């Protein structure tokens, strides 16, 4: 007769060496009265549960696969979001008026559209050190494009904002103006509720500052005559040769700027109107 007796530790733990020795000592030193003859004890390791091992491996495999799937899903989502942002930016760069509902896209000549974040970088986040002027329209900042070109950025304050159609009409009109004695419009920003005009930077300031002695520029009579002739040529171009002709309506020494050669450039087209109107 073979009798198999299985001993299990309480609580599902494993027997340590002391526990196993104790069990063996008790069995071997106990007298059994058996009608079947002599008896003896042998200790055999209880077979493991193969199903439990397989289940553990399966659980670990499913967990790892699930984690990898979550990581891949998040990575794919981040990649898709970045690609969409890049595509949106490219769309704006190619067609900055695509989100506007009023009117058709204006026909611009050379003037470029700049996103608001780029203009912030050009002006060091519109810092006080970049501010070079102010008026009823808003403030003017000195900026530096990524190409290294210096520009004057005219930022409209909230009370001076125009409607979308009016702003498009203005930049369309200004982009057609090309004359050496008229300040050139390099670009504009119509983004995130902002309206900004980006002009070429004229380094020697206004004629008023030069005449009043506020700047260190000395204008002798030949230079003053040259400035007067330059301003007259700029106005003549606006009145007669611009397409359409433009009436400035606010010509004064504040709005005549001096370049690095002290040539006059007519500026401030915020109050300009086409002659046809």
From TrEMBL:
InterPro entries: Kinase-like_dom_sf, Prot_kinase_dom, Protein_kinase_ATP_BS, Ser-Thr/Tyr_kinase_cat_dom, Ser/Thr_kinase_AS. ATP binds at residue 154. Signal peptide: none annotated. It is found in: Membrane. It holds the Pfam family PK_Tyr_Ser-Thr. One of its GO terms (cellular component) is membrane. Residues 126-277 form the Protein kinase domain. The chain crosses the membrane at residues 58-81. GO terms for molecular function: ATP binding; protein serine/threonine kinase activity. PROSITE patterns: PROTEIN_KINASE_ATP (PS00107), PROTEIN_KINASE_DOM (PS50011), PROTEIN_KINASE_ST (PS00108). Keywords: ATP-binding, Glycoprotein, Kinase, Membrane, Nucleotide-binding, Repeat, Serine/threonine-protein kinase, Signal, Transferase, Transmembrane, Transmembrane helix. Belongs to the protein kinase superfamily. This is Protein kinase domain-containing protein. The lineage of its organism: Eukaryota, Viridiplantae, Streptophyta, Embryophyta, Tracheophyta.
